[in-house]
Amino acid sequence: MNSMTKVLRIGVAVIWASGVWAFGGQERHTRLAASTGQQQTNAGLVAAWEKDAGRPALQRRNPRYQIEYGDVIELNFPFTSEFNQTVTVQPDGYINLIGAGDLHVEGQTTPELRDRLREVYGSILHDPVITVTLKEFEKPYFVAAGEVTRPGKYDLRGFTTATQAVAMAGGFNDTAKHSEVLLFRRTSNNWVEVKKLNLKKLLHAENLSEDVALQPGDMLVVPKSTIGKIRRYLPSQAVSMYLNPAGF
Fold first, then answer.
1. Is the domain of 208 the same as that of 226?
2. Domain check: are 50 and 149 in the same one?
3. pTM
4. Looking at the domain assignment, is residue 20 inside a domain?
5. pLDDT tens by residue, 151-182
6. Rounded distance, CA 107 to CA 23, Å?
């Protein structure tokens, strides 16, 4: 075999290996889908991720609460009390304001809403002073799903770790793969971070110093079979394929 043939063969092998590496993750995601339609949807999401080569933007520490549907907000006008009002965020994300009509507020923080209200009421009031107070809002929570005794949504009260969260959900089922628990944590509106936790090792070692502390909105998914390699970041829409029993 001459040197040119060797170079060509090595080149082909490198290209093939790169292709397997690039698309292997997408194939594994596709195998987890429950139906052809879902396979195409999930494959499309992963393909978009590949094309983008994107990562979610770094998030600020201690982010402010964002207003959601169903929140109740008190608006106080200290110098023009006739505009004082308590409003509820409607399912479409709007509130109805006295003298100013509808305003979309879902996804805003209270300081952002205050600034927006000053703009809106600035057309009818001179330099309005407004305070915004959340009266009722989504309380901190976590979700436990998969092979736990009582899957569901739980209040997150104080410091709670992953193993404590599983205990609150009634513990593992007999079929649980508790060495591969998945923790999904939202990093933005469109992306979630995924961590694989070996709770079996933590519990057997009786060393919980590395037990992960949960944050509001976290979701723990306990599978009943081994899950292959999983990307650190996923589009939010792709999380549903890990909740499908066929994926476990």
1. yes
2. yes
3. 0.53
4. yes
5. 999 988 888 899 999 999 999 998 888 888 99
6. 35
